[in-house]
Design brief:
Radius of gyration: 41 Å
Strand content: 5-15%
Largest sheet: 4 strands, mixed
Low-confidence stretches: none
Order of helices and strands: HHEHEEEH
CATH class: Alpha Beta
Length: about 190
């Protein structure tokens, strides 16, 4: 009986030891797999974050360049255009040239919208000089919506030519932007 008990005890201990050994091996494999997955996930996350940071940096640089470009163009254009399009003699010269072109190409009565701020200076010119020069009717109105420049077109037409401060700034700005960008950033 002692032998049987001794043999049972020995088998139990060997089985237990074997089970413990197998369990530890499985545990080590599982820990290695978990560690490998964690390293891979961390590397993938690092690559993704680096890509996102690089993209954000490029976008920030581009946005900053665009802001600088807009500031330079705005500084160059705004004051000059505002001053020119508020100058009565300049406006008179341009209106005369545009109105004569309309008169020659499409004889028609014209409608003209001018800045309210220049009404006292331009109203006599439009009624007297421009009307005589064109030999056609010209209907002028003054609007607070037009800060500088003018809008002109046939009275009965569905279109007009706009040379307001905003349209002129957009036009000049579109030509200045590429040159400014090259000057600033190479």
């Amino acid at each position: 009986m002692d032998k049987l008990q001794e043999l049972t005890q020995k088998l139990y201990e060997e089985g237990l030891a074997k089970g413990k050994q197998d369990g530890e091996a499985l545990l080590q494999k599982a820990q290695a797999a978990i560690l490998a997955k964690a390293r891979k996930d961390a590397e993938d996350f690092k690559v993704k974050v680096e890509g996102d940071v690089k993209m954000a940096a490029q976008q920030a640089v581009q946005a900053t360049r665009t802001d600088i470009e807009n500031l330079v163009v705005s500084k160059v254009v705004d004051g000059t255009v505002d001053k020119a399009l508020a100058n009565e003699d300049f406006i008179k010269g341009i209106i005369t040239a545009v109105a004569q072109k309309f008169s020659a190409d499409e004889p028609a009565d014209l409608s003209l919208v001018l800045p309210e701020s220049l009404k006292s200076a331009l109203e006599p010119f439009v009624k007297n000089e421009l009307g005589k020069l064109l030999g056609k009717g010209i209907d002028a109105s003054f609007s607070k919506k037009v800060a500088g420049g003018f809008k002109i077109g046939p009275k009965d037409g569905g279109y007009f030519v706009s040379l307001t401060d905003e349209t002129f700034k957009d036009l000049i700005g579109s030509y200045l932007r590429p040159a400014t960008k090259k000057l600033l950033f190479g």
